[in-house]
Amino acid sequence: MMGNKPLVKPDMRCSYVLEQWIRMMHYCGLPKEDMDMIHCDGPVMEKILVKGNVRLTQFTGSTKVGEHLVKVLDGKVKLEDGGFDWKILGPDAPVKHQATVDYVAYQCDNDAYNHAGQKCSAQSIMFMHKNWRKTDLIEKMKSQAGKRSLKDLTCGPVISWSTEKI
């Protein structure tokens, strides 16, 4: 981080995942004193940012909160697109290379479902050039997604939406 010590604050519903990632970073060689993590809610973190007179905040989350932080922190915020991620498959479809089609189907499935609870990083929409219709990509993707289940934890619930909201 070029001499800066980052303080990371995940969404409280998934802080355990970030904690484990940081532990893996330590295992891989990140010095423990080079990064801090805090577990708190948004208003507490806002007070820390304002009182600490931070030079830059990177924020991923809702537009409403992002706009609020820009005002409160005098624009010292980098907003990361969170929530609508595109995948574009161009005209170079591997019509004669089934292994490549299999891999693309696998990757599309992982991009859409593998980080359950992290809607901001999930693939939201895919645009596909007509050449891909010459392959069995859609069938492969359907098959791949059909294997996911809450029972074996290959997919997870959307934890920020209640049944009533849906």
Q: What's the arrangement of secondary structure elements?
A:
Elements: E1 7-8, H1 15-27, E2 36-37, H2 42-51, E3 57-60, H3 63-72, E4 77-80, E5 85-89, H4 98-113, E6 123-128, H5 137-146
Characterise the protein shown here.
This protein is α/β, with parallel strands linked by helices and about 170 residues long. It has helices at about 15-25, 40-50, 65-70, 100-115, 135-145, and strands at about 5-10, 35, 55-60, 75-80, 85-90, 125-130. The strands form 3 sheets. A two-stranded parallel ribbon has the order 1-2. Helix 4 crosses helix 5. The radius of gyration is 20 Å and the shape is elongated. The model has no long low-confidence stretch (mean pLDDT about 85).
Distance between the termini: 40 Å
Shape: elongated
**Rg, nearest Å:** 20 Å
Relative helix content: 25-40%
> What order do the strands of the largest sheet run in, or round the barrel if closed?
1-2
Give the strand tally: 6
For the sheet with most strands, the description reads:
2 strands, parallel
Mean of all residue-level pLDDT scores: 84
Low-confidence stretches: none
Multimerization status: single chain
Give helix and strand order, one letter per element, not per position: EHEHEHEEHEH
Which structural class best describes the helix and strand composition? alpha/beta
Beta-strand residue percentage: 5-15%
Q: Total domains, how many?
A: 2
Query: How many H/I helices?
Result: 5
